[in-house]
């Protein structure tokens, strides 16, 4: 879509506005809204939301809204939050282990296919 056809002009947000919107988005998602719904309510795209999270975390060397630790700013981590994060880390480790297994199997399959094509290459299957 050409720039002249955009419905709303692009807006630059201050760091304070970004922090406020990130916290508000986290609260909306904690209440059960999806990222897309929360971003629509805030008036930003999902990509902008993710870019803001990444930039804010890099600038401040921490997560402003507890996205990674499931803790809102000013709150403290409860036992269930810590258990949830441990569960997430366990799932991530299992996912990585399964990815390695699949990659190993794909490599074995490729080697077997290469061996099979090499074994039949040059042989005639016609009548003797």
Tell me about this structure:
Residues 64-76 have low confidence and may be disordered. Helix content is 63%, strand content 0%. The radius of gyration is 25 Å and the shape is elongated. It contains four helices and no strands. The longest helix is centred in the last third of the chain and has 42 residues, at 79-120. The chain has helices at 15-30, 35-42, 46-60, 79-120. With 128 residues, the protein is mainly alpha-helical. Helix 1 (15-30) crosses helix 3.
Helical content band: 55-70%
The poorly predicted ranges are 64-76
Q: Beta-sheet strand percentage? A: under 5%
User: What would you call the shape?
Assistant: elongated
* First-last Cα distance: 66 Å
* SSE order: HHHH
Query: What is the tally of helical segments?
Result: 4
The major β-sheet equals:
none
Mean pLDDT across all residues, rounded?
A: 77
What is the gyration radius calculated from CA atoms? 25 Å
Total number of strands:
0
Secondary-structure-based class equals mainly alpha
């Amino acid at each position: 879509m050409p720039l002249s056809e955009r419905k709303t002009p692009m807006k630059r947000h201050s760091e304070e506005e970004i922090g406020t919107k990130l916290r508000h988005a986290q609260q909306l998602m904690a209440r059960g809204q999806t990222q897309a719904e929360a971003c629509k309510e805030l008036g930003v795209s999902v990509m902008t939301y993710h870019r803001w999270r990444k930039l804010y975390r890099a600038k401040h060397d921490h997560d402003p809204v507890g996205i990674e630790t499931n803790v809102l700013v000013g709150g403290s981590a409860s036992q269930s939050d810590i258990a949830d994060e441990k569960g997430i880390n366990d799932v991530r480790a299992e996912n990585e282990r399964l990815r390695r297994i699949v990659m190993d199997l794909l490599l074995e399959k490729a080697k077997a296919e290469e061996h099979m094509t090499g074994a039949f290459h040059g042989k005639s299957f016609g009548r003797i």
